[in-house]
Fold this sequence. Notes:
The protein has about 425 residues and is an alpha/beta fold. Helices cover about 35% and strands about 15% of the residues. The protein folds into 2 domains: about 90 residues, no CATH class; about 300 residues, CATH 3.40.720. The chain is globular and about 70 Å long.
Amino acid sequence: xxxxxxxxxxxxxxxxxxxxxxxxxxxxxxxxxxxxxxxxxxxxxxxxxxxxxxxxxxxxxxxxxxxxxxxxxxxxxxxxxxxxxxxxxxxxxxxxxxxxxxxxxxxxxxxxxxxxxxxxxxxxxxxxxxxxxxxxxxxxxxxxxxxxxxxxxxxxxxxxxxxxxxxxxxxxxxxxxxxxxxxxxxxxxxxxxxxxxxxxxxxxxxxxxxxxxxxxxxxxxxxxxxxxxxxxxxxxxxxxxxxxxxxxxxxxxxxxxxxxxxxxxxxxxxxxxxxxxxxxxxxxxxxxxxxxxxxxxxxxxxxxxxxxxxxxxxxxxxxxxxxxxxxxxxxxxxxxxxxxxxxxxxxxxxxxxxxxxxxxxxxxxxxxxxxxxxxxxxxxxxxxxxxxxxxxxxxxxxxxxxxxxxxxxxxxxxxxxxxxxxxxxx
Length: 426
């Protein structure tokens, strides 16, 4: 019997999938009920913690304000679209590098219930989509515990793309295709997926109930991949970003804006459901001259109360980062939900602003400043300032999973924390 190259490839693919699915693979996480869940997740990172008296709003619950000159005041235009989260602590780790490593992984290990993955990678894997990571000068110091927040395993970094030009080329490689060529490309990719789906369906008939559940999950992931291919091929490419020195300090604002614009476009085109943007890295030395400061951000973050000029400049720098978060939120809010869905893209998205430290002067993980944006399809009640009394930030990671439709009850180490943040859901 002669086996064609295509049959061999498909057979090897199915064999490999069977090995991954049945040979030590992770137990799939069940999806939660379909109502009130987000369609998209975005993680927004900025470095070097905060100085709480200049970060905290005044008031509580739905009645709060941003003091004049405070770090979060630039969020006033989107106040009803956000949740300011206070009193969330890192459990079991502090300081720059451990915070950077544990912020999205909960310091997970391979033996944990998430296999050491960061929450963005974990959710994307369960949804069957490829996450997109956008960097803003995040790799100046290479890939290490200080510069990486996304993990595929406890020792495998997931690098964001720091060059908007390269990211554009990757996202819109087929933008120059004619409608007919784009349709043909989608058809070819769809035929491969359909063939692989058929092979998996045959395999499903030969295995037990537990393994059938794993195969069903993978079939869902394949269908999501197919839909992503179709969405990307049918999307109109925006104007390509200008080429610039991706490591130059002066390029920082322009690169960040270009990356945020590409991120929003990729989500609108259905290229993924999970994306992140990482501004710099912990211990970032960037000098935010455009914010009116002349000292590196990390140095400013350690200004004690006696250094009033240093504290004032740190607040200026942090206000600039807050304005970038507001820009991203407003960009999502300005676009209607694709495909004629209800509301705006922001209404159906969860955006999470994360940091790797609480008090930047103490290098601790106490009251780490987190801000959420978007109603997540009705999962989150926005327009609130909530205190959580020292709850482990694993509860936030669980909330992110559940907002995306997963039934996850613990993230990282089940012994530390379980369940989502209380009082956050609508």
